[in-house]
Design a protein that fits this description.
This protein is of the alpha/beta class. The protein is built from 11 helices and 13 strands. The strands form 5 sheets. Strands 9-8-7-10-11 form a 5-stranded parallel beta sheet, sandwiched between helices. A two-stranded antiparallel sheet has the order 1-2. α2 runs antiparallel to α4 (93-112) and α4 runs parallel beside α5.
Amino acid sequence: MQKLGNYIAGNWISGDGDGQILYNAINNEPVAVATTQGIDMAAMLNYAREKGNPALRKMTFQQRGRMLRALALHLLNKKEDFYAISALTGATRLDSWIDIEGGIGNLFSNASLRRRLPDDPFCLDGDPIVLSKQGNFMGHHLLVPKEGVAIHINAYNFPVWGMLEKIAVNLLAGMPAVVKPATVTSFLTEAVVKEIIASKILPEGALQLLCGSAGDMLDHVTSQDVVTFTGSASTGLKLKSHPRILEESVPFNMEADSLNCIVLGNDVQPGQPEWDIFIKEVKKEMTVKAGQKCTAIRRIFVPENRIEEVTNSLKTELDRTLIGNPSNEKVRMGSLAGHGQREEV
């Protein structure tokens, strides 16, 4: 069976060992095998710091922004290829649109931020501060890129958006990235990264990919690196407490479990526009991405005397929702991404 590629130090390589089999979320047929066994994580991070970082640091904000725009345009032309692969994750066309074109939209948005930034590799912070009576001694803060690498450990539900929204930021800021997507849907991330690398738009070393376990990667981070994590609070806390991250005071950004709610007002009644909006939003949050969103509604608060009516209205709407294979254009809700997600539900 085909092994997913890991893009390490300028080369596509396959990990050793049997790895983890990844399945088609619709029919449970094997899609690929993911493994990072045998990869030298320390060398991978050093390659980003020594090759990718200097190349990005010498570019101006304007050059980096134009680079992001060029990458967005390139990926947009390849989107149909990504849609076909995304369907294997159980995603409908709408689900994939959010993930794929939403992710590309992040590249466009961050590219536009260059208009607010100078045509320099650095950015001035605030006004100069005079430090002497005669004004011949002053100080001025400069914002410069960190000399490390941004490590992105991402969630399974948005394998494209999750990567592009993060690397857009670090690339504009002049830092390279190592992306470690959630393994279960990493075959879609791999497809996008292959296109990114093939385009030759990014400087070498600016982006590396791990499809599988992160191994001992965090053992080799330094104070110049940054780690971001999207996933469960329990896993995030474990990573954030990693001895090396604490010892090196590595910046750690965690986007974890959320408890989003929707509240129906006491004065809202069936037939009113507000009622219809409420029912529509709850249905949407339950069915888009099969509910696999960090922003999905998890708590529905309604007045006690409206519980039965809300339940009946939701049942009516959900009964109209066709669940099944996303290749059927009439299907409005696909499957969960994998067995692990099904067990959690």
